[in-house]
Amino acid sequence: MMYTDKELKAMREEGMLTVVMRNAMNELEDEFTSLIDINAFNAKLAKLKKARGRSDWSSVLAGLYEMFRSCGISFETGRDWDYYAELVKKSDIPRFIDIEDKIMYALYKRFGDYPSPEEYMKRIVDKLSNSEDNWQNDTLRLRILKQFIKYGGTLTFKRQNAATGKNEEVKVYNGKPYIVKYVKKITGKAPKLNDILENISDDIFSCLDSATKDQKKSDGTYGILKMADDLAAGKFRSGGATKRSLYYFAMVYGMTYFSGASGEKRDPATDIEKNLFQDYYTNNLVRFITNAYSGKLNEFEYDPSGQGINYKNFAEMVYIYYISRNISGEEKIKRSYEMIERLKNSASKPVESSSMDTVMYRENFFTDTHILDHNGANVLEYSEEDFENFIRRSYNCNPTDETGAAIGALQVENDQNSAFAAYREIISMLEYETADADSCNYGLWFTDISSYQKDGYGSFLKKHPDADKERFSQLIGLLSGINAYLGYSVDENVNFKDNRSGTKKFRLRALNITKPSEMTRTSIVVAYYYFYNALHESDDPENRKSFSGLFNDFKDGIDVYLEQAGYQEFSGRNIFDVITAFSAYAYPYL
Amino acid sequence: MTFFWSRAGSFHSCQEDKNQDRVMSAENERFTVITLADGASGCPESGTGAEIACEAVTALFLSRAEMFFGFNRRETADFVLGHIRHRIKKRAEAENRCISDYSSTIASVICDSRLNRFFYFSLGDSLIAGTDKSRCFMIAMPPDSFGGTCMTTTENAEKLAECGVVQGREVDTVFICSDGAWRLMFERNRLYKDMERLLVEGDFKGLSEAVVQKESFDDHSLICCDMSRRIIA
């Protein structure tokens, strides 16, 4: 294990030279683990009493020890039932209802540990930047812009028009004329690449403040600036715009794709799936409390599917092919753009139906071991010509929807049939477990967010004088965001009641997905949350699980469906997952 | 049969510090255990810590090999790390040191020749991989090191330990590389073609010679178990 001089210096300065990683995953999940109420202890004591003289005495006792440890209660091992009953009685163990405040305080303390999309992006840029460029002190959006200019050729290139034979400039993203003009104003001469890199500052983005919608489009005057700004702030646009910019980002930063081919490993620093599609471009609810999103929710993609790479989409396969090639970022962008254009122009629909499962589709060509065609050759090692023919033969490259209207290349074959099948299975189980699935709308169960919104934060701040009002307000914003996916807010509830008094009920959006194209990871988590609660509603209190026990149980159950759907597994690193699991933990007891 | 190399990188060979990587193997009639521990450079007793971890895990895995094939991830992690830490703690107390002075990564594989399967355990940034007759495949890959690398002495390290069982496939060799070694063998996320060929051919001696040609700042080690007895070393 090796550290750079810089890392060692920093560790020395922090007095942690010998502590390589002080604590792994010390997250909210751990805070919740210690929140055990008196009912849980009483249930465990009752179980222990029944186990007297039986073979399961030791295992029940071990569970009780674990609970004492989690709560920081000192105890002696190997004592009889009366000792432990007395210890529980003497200890100041809260009722679950009293725990709400503790939960809110734990959330308040720890929610800042969960990175926002912007922080994830900064990590990626820090890891993948060439230190010789010396742009570390620039703002994040400026660093991204400079990277595109230096390694992506400002996303414009010249090519010969096949029909006219004339050279023409292709603008993958527009913005070069504006950047040139901006620098020319400073230097007084037509700038070269180095002049541009040396003279642009964050001020160049000020044009976006007053820009029109058209100017901010990819082919608009400020297209490339807007793209860099969106990527830096984690602003997700719908219609494939964000995905396209992520692939170009991966190209200019030299990211890698792990295909599982012989001699290939997943590189955590450069892997596109992990870094861009799992950490960054996912339904990371922390974005709701960032400046970029505050008050502008309707401008952005509300619930990114969480799908990651769509293996049914021809354009994404082209991007992956070029990301895997050992050529410059500029060439990757140019060649992928041109191949996609050629494929679009010569498109005819292939034999494979769009109802084919995404997972099956991937396995046809992208097996779980490596990317193979029908003859066993790795398609990522094909020549460009062979790869293009392979895609033309095997994929739908026709960018129109079922009505014949034009759509973007990244919108082709956008259905998520595997995810939809997994989701339908959960909904069937939910409908089996509960007579009235339409009433599954109660949202977060451990606290009433609307009461904080209505009555203010006085009671919390009074109990915790060290708490900062602004920060607590951010937490409430975050929980409101989570609650908006899980249930109805107060205002919506009024509507809901009106509807109930009429003839029609309506379901939560997440429980009412009707098309594979609408699938999101969040919907699977929400559907499973209501199923899990219904399934365990009548569990024997003696068998109550600790929070970590429930988290693992919930995870084991839902991961089967998330994996089938091709989504990221249920994780303690995702604040939505942790809070949803905690709400399921609270559900039977409040 | 096992094969290994372990060399100090230029950072250590020009200083008084010695190679802080440790490799170890042990076998009985049925099982072979290979283990690699990589001591953390900044820790004063990391070489000793790596040795303790190597010895503890190798002995534990060989004596209770069959049991680990039935364990789940968390049970294994708790058990293995508890075992290592107990030994580190005893040494630290005897030498009046802090346990984090003995930090190292740990990776180990139990190869079961009778049932043609193997169990692997990894904590930290070592790489465990295998070969069959045509290809080299990854088994446990180094995780994201953002925030540091997880070590035997890291609190809650149990959560980040990786382990599992691989069975039902023809495997010729299983090997473990320290981060210093795999960095010399990979260009970004791909093995150099010549090194991949040497691995698939089982020519570990050739691989060792190819690796030594490269300048390495860090210590680099590799240990391999030949499950098909066709290794060239």
Description:
The complex is a heterodimer of chains A (590) and B (233). Chain A has 590 residues and is mainly alpha-helical. Helix content of chain A is 51%, strand content 2%. Chain A folds into three domains: 38-93, no CATH class; 117-349, no CATH class; 417-589, no CATH class. Chain A has helices at residues 5-13, 28-33, 38-50, 57-71, 81-90, 96-110, 117-128, 140-152, 176-187, 193-199, 213-216, 223-233, 241-252, 272-280, 314-323, 329-345, 358-365, 384-394, 417-433, 449-455, 458-463, 469-486, 490-501, 521-536, 547-565, 575-586, and strands at residues 156-160, 167-171. A two-stranded antiparallel ribbon of chain A has the order 1-2. Mean pLDDT of chain A is 80; it is low at 11-26 and 489-504. With 233 residues, chain B is of the alpha+beta class. In chain B, strand 4 and strand 5 form a beta hairpin. In chain B, helix 2 packs across helix 4 and helix 6 (193-201) packs antiparallel against helix 7. The longest helix of chain B is centred in the middle third of the chain and has 22 residues, at 73-94. Classes of the chains: A mainly alpha (590), B alpha+beta (233). At the A-B interface, loops of A face strand 7, helix 5, strand 11 and helix 6 of B.
